[in-house]
Amino acid sequence: MAKETKSAAELAREERKSRIEKAGNAQAAKKDKKNNQTAAQKRAKWLVPTIIVVVALVLALLYYFGVPHRTLSIVKYDNGGKVSTAEYEYYYKAIYNNLANTSFQYEQYYGAYYGAGAGKQMTGFDFTKTPENQECTLTEEDTGIALDPKVYGDKPTWADFIKEYSIEQAKEINSVYSAALKAGAKLTDEEKAEIDKQIEELRSTAAESNYALNAYLMQTYGRGMNEKLLREIMTKQTLASSYITAQENDITSKITEDDITKYYNDNKNEYNFVAIRYFTFDAEAAVNTEAQEATDTTEAVEATNYSDKELAEMTKKAVAEKKALAEEFYAAATADNFTSLAYQYADKDHKDYYDVNSETYNDSYTTATNVNYSSLETYFGEDIAKWAFEDSRQVGDKTMSTQTSDDGSTTFIIAIMSSLPSRDETLQPVAVRHILFSLTKDVEKTDKDGNTTTEQEAIRTKDEALAEAQKTLDAWVKTGAKEDDFIKLAAEKSEDPGSADNGGLYEDITTTSSYVKEFLDWCFADGRKVGDYGIISTEYGAHIMYMSSISDKPQWKQDVISAIASSRTDEFYQGIVTDKGFNGKLSNGLIKSVQKKIEKYAEKVVANYQAQLEASATTAAAK
Hints:
The chain has 22 helices and 13 strands. Mean pLDDT is 84; it is low at 1-17, 19-24, 26-31, 37-68 and 290-303. It is an alpha+beta fold and 623 residues long. The protein folds into three domains: 77-255 and 575-622, no CATH class; 273-422, no CATH class; 430-550, Chitinase A, domain 3, CATH 3.10.50. Helix content is 54%, strand content 15%. The termini are far apart. The longest helix is centred in the last third of the chain and has 35 residues, at 588-622. Helix 9 (189-208) packs across helix 10 (213-221).
């Protein structure tokens, strides 16, 4: 039978019919499948896409509340320990804030004296720039932190320094904390209470800004911070610190007399003291300046066009003149005529300082007493220090030292030996508390050009200060004259910014300390004993005095014990922080993310500081 031939139109109709039938069958099958689903299958159908949405929301919330920051690790130590992103950011931010704030404070205080940039000049950190945008010129010797040139290049930034410092600080705190736990160390009740107090103070501060505590901590310390983590960090820091302090106290208690004798004999030049008479002649290098005034040390130069050769000749001439004068002084000098010679050879602008009949005379301009080898080397150079501490030295010996700086300036120093190296057995240090009622207060004044100076403004007379001191003393005595109460009074009433926060305490005071005469006279009056109190009057005001402690050891022995204890404690500490278990693997990606975050934060801090400076300048201009 012949096969039927179909047209193209018929073939198309049949294909379309087939597709419709297949689609209908599929829909029917799908309907049957839906009708025959179990309850679990029906839940799964809508639950799966819902889970996907919920997971996305949860991850977003976890990030917002800082969960990844607390779980992801910046450092994983070989012993299984770790430092979370949140903890690392806490250290990083704290170090930056401290650097920036210190630089800004120095700028505000010293800018009036040294000009703009005083903050950077004195700290090395420029608060007007973010860490990443300024070179860190401090060395490992300055900071104890090494910045490897292979990693950071020849010009590391402050961000590089803060990174390394943060990692090192986290490592040290965690390693010492771990060692403390292994040794069974625990926080005292007082330490726990102090942590609680700090947390509650933060809670109050947060409430004042209408924040819950955790929200405030997140804003202040970074997204991963909350009360639990902050307590953990505070606990680590507190226990680590108290553990090392306890070890140092234990080490100190075990230092023997043999230890002291050996250390002293090995380091005599640091614990023996000498006295010398001295006088200097300075020959400054001739330099091109817009106008250099004539002085006794350098021939007058009004120069902007002198050649290097001409300047060298002028310097050579000035040095020769000063050398001739120094040699004259040296040849004539004796212990008896030293003071009169100093007056004779002093330049005309400073003769009053060397005139025994002048109000400005001070024998410290020609006398150095109670100085050890290091002090002599610092102030007079290595030659003088070596000379003074030679075994063959005799009282009355003299020397002349020549010191030349890189710019060609030369100093000639004449010295006469007044006393030979020895240790002072009579210098027994005391600790004193005082409450000061000051006669003046510091007041900042700004001139029309915006320059700020600090001046003293009278606030009470000496009699008024004494009356106030007596009234306070009488009230304290009535309560039992206890030292604890004195400490509280000092914090409340003392106007001495250097000691009020420390209960008015000054320690390690000896008869040679640089306190005013009335202060030292009271401290070392015959028969003075612990618990004594009284009132003295000085140029600063009226002081209520309290004798806190009197050492039973001379100062040199105290210093030796302290040096031994410090060295041994440092060895103990280094043994902990170099524990191989605390070698860590770094997550550079997370480290960079924290750095970027702090850079943005720093931009706001910089803007705030600049706004404060502009406001101060505007206020000054208005006056």
